[in-house]
Design goal:
By secondary structure, the protein is of the alpha/beta class. The chain contains 9 helices and 10 strands. It binds S-adenosylmethionine. S-adenosylmethionine binds next to α2.
Length: 308
């Protein structure tokens, strides 16, 4: 049996993340379809136009959860000095900078993201690194075979055309190059999604067709493994990972949800409706409060593979 690993944030002492991520598992068979209410509607539209300078700054502060599970993901890339690495969907670039430091001497991490506010912040915070505005589906700015490693951390579940994104990843990786990527688990909704579904139901604001601004292209472990194999990647390893976040309260919940979704979270509600949902969420969170804060579980699938 694999012991759960524990990762402590050096940015927020109160945020202890528990990781249960057995390494070495191959793609498991799909389980039953998860609870529909918290899943959102596949294909519902997420806009890349709702981000703001302020949301980018908030993400840079509260996105340490993604940073921390990114460190776990990157164990599978097996980075070494001299490697050229592409961070696809780099956000504000904290993980890119961490990777860049790990591939010295001689290596380089490059970041690409469609949100100009986040790319600007990344460039300002990490001068000397190469950050560009662009999308996973269009890596034309990079030559074929130009990277030893490539990763998407908390990005794939936002992408409509994942097939195209993976084709591009394959193209820019050199033969033998490695890819690591993750998605919120389609089969196991985060506690935050279940809690939101309850809050919306209590306020009679459920709309079956609405996505509510969560990542609507989540994959199961099986689907993630199949996606990589369908593109020709080999040595595909998939693992299911659960994390427990400790939150201080409703403000942190909302800051994280809104900035992680670049402004899409509850974007279809009026401000009056949002206020009601906020009050409901606060009450539901407070019911879960213990001496260490409010514990919420997130469930993800992680995968790594190699271009032969
Ligand atoms: C939750 S953030 C994760 C940011 C960063 N990877 C991290 O670990 O902090 C999700 C990111 O996915 C990016 N994204 C959304 N759609 C994308 C696409 N089609 N191609 C590349 N990135 C995309 C967003 O712009 C956003 O920065």
């Amino acid at each position: 049996m694999v012991e759960p690993r524990r990762v402590r944030s050096d940015k927020c002492a109160a945020a202890l993340i528990q990781v249960d991520c057995p390494a070495g598992a191959t793609a498991p068979r799909a389980r039953t379809e998860a609870r529909a209410a918290a899943q959102g509607a596949p294909g519902a539209s997420i806009s890349l136009e709702r981000d703001t300078e302020q949301l980018a700054a908030v993400y840079d502060r509260v996105g340490f959860r993604q940073f921390e599970h990114g460190e776990v993901l990157l164990q599978d890339l097996v980075l070494k000095p001299g490697d050229k690495v592409l961070d696809v969907g780099c956000g504000t670039g904290q993980l890119t900078a961490w990777v860049h430091a790990r591939v010295q001497p001689g290596g380089r991490a490059t970041g690409i993201d469609p949100l100009p506010h986040r790319v600007r912040l990344a460039t300002r915070n990490h001068p000397g690194l190469d950050f560009r505005v662009g999308r996973a589906e269009h890596l034309e700015g990079f030559a074929e075979g130009s990277f030893d490693g490539l990763y998407l951390n908390s990005v794939l579940h936002w992408i409509v055309n994942q097939d195209r994104a993976l084709s591009e990843a394959w193209r820019v990786l050199r033969p033998g190059g490695r890819i690591a990527l993750n998605s919120a688990d389609r089969e196991r909704p985060h506690d935050s999604a279940l809690l939101l579904a309850t809050a919306l139901a209590k306020e009679h604001l459920e709309r079956p067709s609405a996505n509510r601004g969560g990542p609507s292209h989540r994959l199961s472990a099986k689907a993630l493994g199949q996606l990589l194999e369908s593109k020709g990647f080999v040595d595909v390893v998939v693992r299911r990972c659960s994390f427990v976040d400790q939150l201080a309260g409703v403000d942190e919940f909302i800051d994280w949800s809104l900035s992680s979704s670049f402004g899409n979270w509850l974007a279809d509600l009026t401000s009056e409706e949002t206020g009601r949902v906020r009050t409901r969420i606060e009450a539901l969170l407070e019911e879960r409060r213990s001496g260490t804060g409010i514990a919420l579980a997130r469930h993800m699938v992680f995968a790594s593979a190699r271009r032969p």
